[in-house]
């Protein structure tokens, strides 16, 4: 299996390294338009696999031809959030980067699945679908498992016991849904309010501490999707998928055909209202990009 990672910055390099360490592919390509970023990081990763006596071909450079015939392309190129910026502030900047990347995916890797990580996620997922003309099942947005990981981290920290099966669903923005129906641990109202605010602000908390957005946990989320496709696990994941005229987070089985069966949500009326409001916002942002790109 060949996996390519577009963008060799924090998220892209972390994704490529995690793919190499977990042995997800036997060929890995990294592309970044900035100088020797991809070339140098690819060389570093190529050397690190020798530490573990693994045979992995790793390529890197600024030429999109490197992604030729990839089975999966992970899209991480684009600007990260700076302190005070929302994911939506990145709309036009990252839509242009996505446009360029997708043109090259269509040209060099026309049969690939696209795993989108670039923010604002749900908008980028839908644009990747429209720009590529690929079938809906081949475009998968990574964020729900990241938000879920943050939720599970907060619950584990509060309760002092490891948990990893609670899910965050819906949009990858401040309107993400943290519902009692998708928690694997019983929480009282105060605990839930605390966990909710910590999880919802988990991304911004990192941005304020580091000055840029998170990378290891987002990379782990992207690798989880690649592994599910490669191993046809059909595991239910919280992912952003293409819906009717927009994309948003849903619980879907991910396997060798990409997005499979999608679960019906079990949400309260209030949660459904919040989901709808976030979807309206995503539709407006898609419209804004189409009018301004
Ligand atoms: N083609 C290829 N690479 C590009 C392009 C392009 N058209 N435009 C920008 N890049 C590269 C940059 O050169 C940079 O190395 O994308 C990389 C982005 O890396 P970082 O600035 O470190 O950003 P990162 O933290 O990795 O975040 C990337 O992922 O989680 C999201 O919100 C985040 O949208 C952001 C994206």
TrEMBL record:
The keyword Oxidoreductase applies. InterPro entries: L-lactate/malate_DH (IPR001557), Lactate/malate_DH_C (IPR022383), Lactate/malate_DH_N (IPR001236), Lactate_DH/Glyco_Ohase_4_C (IPR015955), NAD(P)-bd_dom_sf (IPR036291). Pfam families: Ldh_1_C, Ldh_1_N. Its EC number is 1.1.1.37. The keyword Repressor does not apply. Keywords: NAD, Oxidoreductase. Residues 1-141 form the Lactate/malate dehydrogenase N-terminal domain. Signal peptide: none annotated. Residues 145-291 form the Lactate/malate dehydrogenase C-terminal domain. Coiled coil: none annotated. GO terms for molecular function: L-malate dehydrogenase (NAD+) activity. Belongs to the LDH/MDH superfamily. This is Malate dehydrogenase. It comes from Campylobacter suis. The gene is mdh.
């Amino acid at each position: 299996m060949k996996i390519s990672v577009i963008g060799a910055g924090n998220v892209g390099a972390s994704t490529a390294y995690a793919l190499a360490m977990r042995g997800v592919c036997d060929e890995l390509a990294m592309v970044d338009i900035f100088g020797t970023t991809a070339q140098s990081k690819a060389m570093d990763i190529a050397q690190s696999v020798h530490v573990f006596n693994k045979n992995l071909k790793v390529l890197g450079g600024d030429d999109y031809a490197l992604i030729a015939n990839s089975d999966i392309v992970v899209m991480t190129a684009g600007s990260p959030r700076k302190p005070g910026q929302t994911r939506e502030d990145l709309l036009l900047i990252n839509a242009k980067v996505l446009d360029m990347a997708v043109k090259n995916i269509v040209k060099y890797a026309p049969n690939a699945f696209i795993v989108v990580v670039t923010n604002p996620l749900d908008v980028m997922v839908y644009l990747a679908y429209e720009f590529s003309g690929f079938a809906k099942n081949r475009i998968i947005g990574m964020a729900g498992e990241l938000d879920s990981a943050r939720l599970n981290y907060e619950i584990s920290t509060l309760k002092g016991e490891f948990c990893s099966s609670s899910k965050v669903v819906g949009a990858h923005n401040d309107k993400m849904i943290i519902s009692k129906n998708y928690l694997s641990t019983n929480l009282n109202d105060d605990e839930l309010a605390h966990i909710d605010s910590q999880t919802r602000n988990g991304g911004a908390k990192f941005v304020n501490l580091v000055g840029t957005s998170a990378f290891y946990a987002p990379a782990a989320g992207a690798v989880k999707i690649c592994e599910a496709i490669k191993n046809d696990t059909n595991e239910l994941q919280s992912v952003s998928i293409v819906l009717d005229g927009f994309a948003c987070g849903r619980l879907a089985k991910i396997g060798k055909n990409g997005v499979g069966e999608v679960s019906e949500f079990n949400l309260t009326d209030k949660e459904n209202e919040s989901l709808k409001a976030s979807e309206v916002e995503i539709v407006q942002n898609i419209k804004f990009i189409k009018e301004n790109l």
